[in-house]
């Protein structure tokens, strides 16, 4: 017995040493990181890709990270960016928020080796440019890593901390880009990926950017930004709008400055020069980022802009830049929306139908529904997300880009009886294979089959630009004349004539 106790006492520190030595480490440009191994996946979280944008760095382009000595733990998410969480969010945050938030996360296969040149997917979250972060459980990248993909997710500044203009900021910028600090963060994170992803086994020449809602809009915008050229090879825009002048359209810099001045006056800052800017930078972060998704739909004087046509980074509407052959060139595109996308805005159907002008009666017939709320919802979804996705697909084909169009119409078994269709953002956990997080204990074989197929189509597109899934239909390139899409239906994925074609043709005729 004594010998066994002595042997065990000697073995314990050896085992502990072995466990410590087994913790995965990766050296990146700013220092060494230590992550965690979880089954077949290596996870590195909370990696700084820029200096904390606090104090005098508030409302400036992201600054370089200060190198660190020794080994930095990368086992937990960093702060999500400052915001007022949105009640009922389909992707609730999993951690704290703060102005110090420029962190990213990497999931890689456990057997990935530096230089393996695995495909990389870069996730951009949505949230109306006022909410969102990388910590929600539905955004966990483990399933992508298990499928042989390096998954990266990165925070970007949102709300007034991410998109803000003021005359003093414009003067301080001295002709350099200002206002779109959130987009600058996205570019900085992609630059970090280009410099460092090979150390995790990823291929910096095969990066697919993908995002949903504001993230999908960001995907469309990044294609038009000169500094982003060469930072990604393929794109997937999910419910990202994209029609010029449509939903998520941008103010120009002059108009955005007036909104910034209105906010400054609302917090008692009337000086429009450096002293006023200093006072604004001294405000507590939660006083600046005091808007939530709900506040976007309230009446009153506008004190928040969202993304801006600043004339330097975003020179004009991104769709127009791409139509003229600018931006990132002929980068393959996947684009789509959900079957019941958008939000019911208001209760009076008359002005919504009147927006179709002389075609109002045709709209009334095409959008027939059990009640006015449903009619409004369908029209707003088509105008805001579904027809703009088709516009993006057609515009990409027109400039000679390989293009694949989809619709996600599937509704989880557990909510189908009380849900009118596949709502905005409902597709995300299927592509991420995190439906057990979204619907714990309620996932059915049909849910699982849809998730498996959706995930495989995304992974194969990221791998070689050709979406495919075992047992699923062939997904052909988009042809505007045929107007076929890959529709994720209740019966499984189907490559079909777009069932919404008549509706979308009508929306296209009356687009403003």
Judging from the principal axes of the Cα atoms, what is the shape?
globular
- Number of helices in the DSSP assignment: 17
**The CATH architecture:** 3-Layer(aba) Sandwich
Radius of gyration: 24 Å
The count of domains is: 1
Distance from first to last alpha carbon: 85 Å
| CATH topology value | Rossmann fold
Low-confidence stretches: 1-21
- Name the CATH homologous superfamily: Alpha/Beta hydrolase fold, catalytic domain
Largest sheet: 11 strands, mixed
Which whole number gives the mean pLDDT? 93
Placed side by side, the strands forming the largest sheet appear as 3-4-8-10-9-11-12-15-16-17-18
What is the share of helical residues?
A: 25-40%
The top level CATH class name: Alpha Beta
- Provide the β-strand percentage band: 15-25%
Structural class determined from secondary elements = alpha/beta
Explain the overall architecture.
- The protein has helices spanning 2-22, 142-146, 159-162, 167-173, 181-196, 214-222, 253-266, 274-281, 285-288, 318-323, 349-354, 360-366, 372-398, 428-432, 435-438, 445-464, 501-509; strands at 25-28, 31-34, 36-38, 41-48, 71-73, 80-81, 97-98, 103-109, 118-124, 150-154, 202-212, 234-238, 251-252, 308-309, 333-338, 403-408, 484-489, 492-497.
- The chain is α/β, with parallel strands linked by helices and 512 residues long.
- The protein has one domain (24-509): Rossmann fold (3-Layer(aba) Sandwich).
- The strands form four sheets. An eleven-stranded mixed beta sheet has the order 3-4-8-10-9-11-12-15-16-17-18, with helices on both faces.
- Strand 3 and strand 4 form a beta hairpin.
- The longest helix is centred in the C-terminal third of the chain and has 27 residues, at 372-398.
- It is globular.
């Amino acid at each position: 017995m004594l010998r066994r106790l002595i042997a065990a006492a000697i073995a314990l520190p050896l085992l502990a040493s072995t466990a410590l030595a087994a913790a995965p480490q990766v050296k990146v440009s700013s220092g060494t990181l230590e992550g965690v191994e979880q089954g077949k996946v290596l996870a590195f979280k909370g990696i700084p890709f820029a200096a904390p944008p606090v104090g005098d760095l508030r409302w400036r382009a992201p600054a370089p990270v200060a190198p660190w000595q020794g080994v930095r733990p990368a086992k937990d998410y960093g702060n999500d960016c400052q915001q007022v969480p949105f009640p009922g969010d389909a992707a609730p945050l999993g951690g704290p928020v703060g102005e110090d938030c420029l962190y990213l996360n990497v999931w890689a296969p456990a057997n990935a080796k530096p230089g393996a040149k695995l495909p990389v997917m870069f996730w951009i979250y949505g949230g109306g440019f006022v909410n969102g972060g990388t910590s929600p459980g539905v955004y966990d990248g483990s399933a992508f890593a298990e499928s042989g993909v390096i998954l990266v997710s990165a925070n970007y500044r949102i709300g007034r901390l991410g998109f803000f203009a003021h005359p003093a900021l414009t003067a301080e910028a001295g002709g350099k880009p200002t206002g779109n600090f959130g987009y600058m963060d996205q570019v900085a994170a992609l630059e970090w990926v280009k410099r460092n992803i090979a150390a995790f086994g990823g291929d910096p020449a095969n990066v697919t950017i993908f995002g949903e809602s504001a993230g999908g809009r960001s995907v469309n915008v990044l294609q038009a930004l000169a500094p982003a050229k060469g930072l990604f090879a393929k794109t997937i825009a999910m419910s990202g709008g994209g029609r010029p002048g449509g939903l998520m359209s941008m103010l120009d810099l002059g108009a955005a400055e007036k909104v910034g001045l209105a906010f400054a006056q609302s917090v008692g800052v009337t000086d429009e020069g450096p002293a006023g800017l200093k006072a604004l930078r001294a405000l507590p972060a939660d006083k600046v980022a005091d808007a939530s998704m709900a506040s976007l739909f309230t009446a009153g004087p506008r004190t928040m802009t969202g993304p801006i046509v600043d004339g330097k980074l975003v020179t004009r509407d991104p769709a127009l830049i791409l139509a003229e052959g600018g931006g990132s060139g002929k980068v393959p595109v996947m684009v789509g929306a959900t079957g019941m996308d958008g939000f019911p805005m208001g209760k009076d159907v008359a002005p919504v139908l009147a927006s179709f002008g002389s075609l109002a009666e045709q709209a009334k017939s095409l959008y027939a529904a059990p009640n006015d709320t449903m009619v409004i919802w369908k029209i707003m979804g088509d105008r805001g997300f579904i027809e703009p996705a088709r516009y993006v697909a057609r515009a990409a084909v027109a400039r000679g880009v390989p293009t694949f169009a989809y619709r996600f119409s599937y509704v989880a078994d557990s909510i189908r009886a009380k849900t009118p269709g596949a709502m905005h953002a409902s597709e995300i956990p299927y592509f991420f294979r995190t439906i057990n997080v979204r619907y714990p204990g309620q996932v059915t074989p049909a849910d699982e089959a849809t998730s498996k197929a959706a995930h495989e189509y995304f992974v194969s597109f990221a791998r070689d630009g050709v979406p495919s899934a075992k047992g699923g239909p062939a997904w052909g390139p988009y042809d505007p004349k045929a107007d076929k899409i890959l529709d994720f239906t209740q019966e499984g994925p189907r490559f079909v004539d777009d069932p919404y074609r008549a509706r979308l043709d009508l929306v296209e005729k009356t687009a403003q």
